[in-house]
Amino acid sequence: MTRPNPDTEREFGVPFPGRILDSSKWAQTALKAMPAEGRLNWPELFGRTAPVVLDVGCGNGRFLIGSAFTRHGHDHLGTDILPVVIRYARKRGNQRGLSNLRFAVLGAHELLERYVEPHSVAEIHCYHPQPYYDPAQVHRRLITPAFLALVHRSLVPGGLFVVQTDNPGYWRYIREVVPVFFDFHERIGRWPDAPRGRTRREIIALKKQLPVFRGHGTTKADLGEDEALKLAESLPPPTFDADRRLRDLDRLA
Q: Which residues contact 101 (CB under 8 A, 6 or more apart)?
């Protein structure tokens, strides 16, 4: 009988990226405070100049840790508004010795609006943004025209935006508004780098045989910042009817 490797973690039977190293090789991935003034300086934060990857609403960090582990030439920052999931993400990033990785407790909109220098990020990923079922909370939905204008502003020319959800209503809205700002393509099939799921939420959805909607796009080269903001003001907000059958999945994830 094969014994499980104590250096390998699993979630719902799926190995977590990377292996737990000896504590002498651990890193420090916590970004405990944002700049008091100005924006984040990527070379200063990571000690080098490299393409930057953001994961907004990163949860326990599965995707970003996997990306940092396999793409040593990229620097990575993940943020989430929930301190408990960031604690898990930091611990796992530390244990894998990932010096090209940082995590912070922060909302996605605040991150892009206040702390990210325009045209300084190579990729922005957003996996399973909260759809919010309570009508009183609908205004908190992340994927809005204003947010997409911020994503467009933050990315370098030709920068990549990746979005994924298992909520059909949210996906219909995403398909409507994202192509205004990005040359957008729906992805057919699973991610080649993580066919069993890039995120904890995706793993659960796939195990329950739920559809997962994926898409990616690059910034429209002929769309300036001022024009993007004007377009954002003219587009509808995300007032779709969220699928309430997914509530239990939300609690599990």
A: 27, 29, 64, 65, 68, 75, 76, 77, 78, 93
Strand partners, 75: 52
DSSP state of 140: G
Q: Give per-residue pLDDT as tens, 98-117.
A: 999 999 999 999 999 999 99
Taking the C-alpha atoms of residue 71 and residue 53, their distance in angstroms, rounded to an integer, is 10
Q: Is 130 exposed, middle or buried (0-12, 13-18, 19+ CB in 10 A)?
A: middle
* pLDDT tens-digit map of 11-23: 999 999 999 999 9
- All domains in the chain, ordered by first residue: 40-252 (3.40.50.150)
Closest residue by Cα to residue 76 from 88, 66, 91, 86 = 66
Q: Is the pTM of this model over 0.85?
A: yes
Residues in the chain: 253
Alpha carbons 189 and 212: distance in angstroms, whole number: 9
In 3D space, the residue among 181, 176, 179, 185 whose CA is nearest the CA of residue 216 turns out to be 185
Extract the tokens encoding 124.
Answer: 């922005």
Instruction: With CA atoms as reference, report the closest residue to 227 among 184, 161, 180, 192.
Output: 180
Closest CA to 57 of 133, 110, 113: 110
Token pair in block for residue 65:
């840790």
SS3 assignment, position 199: coil
On whether the CB atoms of residues 124 and 56 are closer than 8 A, the answer is: yes
Helix, coil or strand: residue 52: strand
Assess contact for 157 and 34: CB atoms under 8 A: no
